[in-house]
Amino acid sequence: MLLVGADADVVGQSEAVLAKLRFAVATSGSVDEALHVMTGLRPDIVVADADAAARIRLEAPDHVPVVVLDDTTRADREALVERIRETIRANPRPE
Q: What is the pTM of this model?
């Protein structure tokens, strides 16, 4: 999982996701950095704010599911975890 953002919320969200889903989480401070990292990392899912998510959907090297951080998921970690789970179920990894 790749979390994109430059603020402390990203760190807090990554801790919540790690605790709940036991995923390996990488963070990126900017969309440019995330796009660069994605060429080698190939995350299963990206979590980003709306602006970053829109650009990642357009420019990512491969289709990668993106979860948008909004007011609800920023305020409620359980809501973020559930949105990630829903996205994973809707986008199973190819075998």
A: 0.86
